[in-house]
Amino acid sequence: MNFVRFLCLFSLFSITFSHETLNPHILPRPLILEYPDNTIETRLKELDEEVKLLCTSWRFAVEANNLGPWKTIPRECVEYVKDYVMGRGYRIDLERVSNEAGVYAKSVELDSDGKDAWVFDIDETLLSNLPYYQEHGYGLEIFDSVEFDKWVEKANAPAIESSLKLYEEVLGLGFKVFLLTGRSEKHRSITVDNLNNAGFQNWDKLILRSSDDHGKLATIYKSEKRSEMTEEGYRIHGNSGDQWSDLLGFSMSNRSFKLPNPMYYIP
Amino acid sequence: MNFVRFLCLFSLFSITFSHETLNPHILPRPLILEYPDNTIETRLKELDEEVKLLCTSWRFAVEANNLGPWKTIPRECVEYVKDYVMGRGYRIDLERVSNEAGVYAKSVELDSDGKDAWVFDIDETLLSNLPYYQEHGYGLEIFDSVEFDKWVEKANAPAIESSLKLYEEVLGLGFKVFLLTGRSEKHRSITVDNLNNAGFQNWDKLILRSSDDHGKLATIYKSEKRSEMTEEGYRIHGNSGDQWSDLLGFSMSNRSFKLPNPMYYIP
């Protein structure tokens, strides 16, 4: 950039000089050299960088679980979130977390008692609702359970490919796989269809919210369900989820794997 | 940038043209106009963007606790980490986490029994060792406890300003403040000096590793110490630390605040 600037200034000086040589009788005029950094384009680029910096910081706070409950993403970050989830950033992050989980899974020495378990959340962990959120402002709109249910009932959510790879790896290693979702029991069969359509099979148990669980915080509901697993003698080695409420609480797994999700927050 | 390019091309054309006017007898030469997008500079910029993308992904994996234990930062990310910690990114992230913690602290209804507590880690939480890491590759060098001890014994680590602000806010609200550090008991007096020099005062207890605690994982050591607090009747509302081993384990705080640290990992 500095080189380009230098070249420009040099060139402009050269023109001036050569023109003066060509027309020596023209009165000298003050030469206004607009420094390129003052253009509107440059200012906009700077603002763009500033938004990127602040939204990256916001996303970091989300992923490190530093924020209190939030209902929508910051309005200024809509384009940022869109660029992230539609671009390579999200995919790279998803691949990295699955790779790390795979490395850990392979390092676990499994017992022959069949009690080594891995827990997966479903939405934004195994299945992607990105097509829904694309139509709903990438998290800018307040969550609308009626609209979202319509989407769920289509059973069309695609697999997150890197999660499917991990899922099969974990099954292949001999872990028992538990799917623990905040979806309601009434969506059991549609969820099974969607999972199958997306390539997920052979799980050991699919746990959905029963009528008793409605109204409970996800952290509590999921901890209670994990607690039942450990009471049945399961050792939960890994837990993959896009929400901290999938991962924290009690009866926590040995290692947890937080998939990125800058679009919504479930307490 | 496009405008600058246009200006340059225009200027270069002008020079060529004016020179030809000045020297009409020079033979015309083929004018090679390299399109700027193919320049080495542009390729380097693309590579730079790629490194930034991958190192951002790595940093998020660190902050979301997705990585297994690591000893040094990736070699490719040295410049990235340097730019982050020396630039505005780190400062903005530090300020955000303190602000979030402050909002939460103010929302807690304190009891009159004086048992409402907040736990702070010290290194990279209250005090910054950035001057040390600047001299040691920003985390690229394997941790050298002898060298680091020399730095600690200078008692010169500056305060992280946003943490000092939070610290005073939390004290002002009436929380009991516990400092829980992985530093050794032998460094008690130098640590007190450093904390005081940096503006930290009036904590309730400074807990350092005793000889019994050496060799314990930080997660265990810190959980045990928090457990002692809760056994004494303290309610740990908030916990601020730059390592997940400050925050996870047992006797966890109600809310935890993960300060950024892309330079080192303590299990």
TrEMBL record, chains A, B:
CDD domains: HAD_VSP. Pfam families: Acid_phosphat_B. One of its GO terms (molecular function) is nutrient reservoir activity. Residues 1-18 form the signal peptide. Keywords: Glycoprotein, Signal, Storage protein. It comes from the Eukaryota. InterPro entries: Acid_phosphat_B-like, Acid_phosphatase_pln, APS1/VSP, HAD-like_sf, HAD_sf. Belongs to the APS1/VSP family. May function as somatic storage protein during early seedling development. NCBIfam families: plant-AP (TIGR01675). This is Acid phosphatase.
